[in-house]
Amino acid sequence: MTDWVRGSVARLISGSAALFEPRKIDTDMASATPDLQKIHVTLAPADLVIEPGGVAQLTVTVRNTQTEPDRVSFEVEGIDMEWYAIPVPAVNVAPRDSATERIIFRIGRSTDNQAGAYPFLVRVQAMESGEVAVAQASLQIKPFHSLQVELIPKRATSTFFQPNNQFEVSLSNLGNTPVTLDVSATDPDSACMYEFETNGMQLQPGQIQQVELITRPKAASLLSGVRLYGFSVLARSREDGYITATANGQIEKHAMVSPLAGIFLSVLVLCSLGWYLFRPKPLPPLIIRTFSASPAATQEDKDITLTWDVSPGFTQLLIEHRVLGRDATDVVDDEPRDSAGSIHVQPEPPQTIYSLVLRGASGQKEQREQIKVNVQPLPPPPKPVLTAFWADPPICHVGDMVMLTWKGRAANYVLDPGSIHLESIDRSHQVTTDTVGDMQFTLRAYGQDPNTPPSTKTITVHVAGKDESVAKIDRFSAWPAAPTIGATVHLRWHTLYAKGGVKIQSNNGTPIGDANGNVGASGTTVFTITTPTTFTITAVDGAGLPAATTLTITPHAAPPPVSTTPPDTTQPDTSGQPAGGANPPSGSPPP
Prior knowledge:
The protein is mainly beta.
């Protein structure tokens, strides 16, 4: 870690030195200055020494040799950010003046903060001119020592047949520097022998190591009372004999036969004989007569009925359940129950296992019976469907309200633009047009399954300006288009969005519609034409803005009939037709 920090500091110093290389001076500048180092930084002291758990202070002096004031910031590189604090990260420095600030170092008393020297850099950067100055210092962390010894277990028993006892000695280095330890054990009476797995070891800061200790009394006893020996385990540093730690334990020594052993055996024999003579009669066994589920298989979210019939005399009746494929821990239902009864439960897919557990008094064997109920999962939710999506009206003025209507089946809808969230029961939504031109509205229908893609439909609403009529004359025609004089003409029209009405007028007073020329939004009329006539149709939208177009019909004379026999002029004409044979055209008008 120290070599890496030193390498980083060296690279930072070499990189910072490039900032102070001579630069080319622009001779055209009115106030050219030599490109020398304009920000200087000094540290005091350059080598800090700090005791873990203590505080040290580094004084940083910055000198501004520029002719202009500048604001400089302070940074520390190369050491842990938790080790230092910069109370004032930036200060203003007047031209040709200096400023002094402090950097506070606080090192916690922890094994992570190992003893040693840590070089670092203090970087000062001018915010106005961009000048950078770097100074190197070193932080020396003093070593501290702290040992801890634990003995597991604290107490052991040594018998005549098993005299050896095994302990585990746990050694912990709670200091910040490595330590080499020697381990030993003694007791005041020197009555026991101690054998360690190893006597010496080296512990790094924060390291914990276990050593096995085997103890045994030096002499075995055939008949005696219980003896208790206390002993101590000592860990001592090889480098400094004053660095030690101890742990205490006890060994309880038992002889092969104690004075109370005979009395105990006599009492045990008498008690055994009395129990055998006066033992209680055995209780009848527990019996589970029936345990069933109805139905034996079901669907998810459906209830079933568990029914049981057991013998009386039990102390506890439990019903446990576990779902196949999940945690094997049983869920216990321990409510008081009668010997015969039933409950309603809801199993989970794919299979739920129910267990009836019957427990009795001491001596009665526990009885258990199991039922497996197969559960079919619910069918997947239906996919979202969007069958229709339209706007009313599809053409409007800017600022008008448009009703968007749809047909479909979904869990919810999202309408764009605006990402408007709508409920499954919604079938329409009113929007306000705010821009002139074509507005696109997209409706997305989402199902209950988030992984199912939505059903989407898009419509376009044409938005006209306030002075533009949205009424449209879809059709205005006459049949025949070139009639003869006196012929019957069919006039047809069809308009859209003419909420203000439709009017047809002619230049010669030919009546169309009512007295003012008002007609329906679409229709047809028949009239006889004798002279050229111009018809004007005007459709007015809801805002009162008109849209008009004209149609001119010019009749022509019918051609004379072609005949090979000259007409008889002595006989009157009784046909009732006008001379020249100008008959109205026959046939049906086009649709």
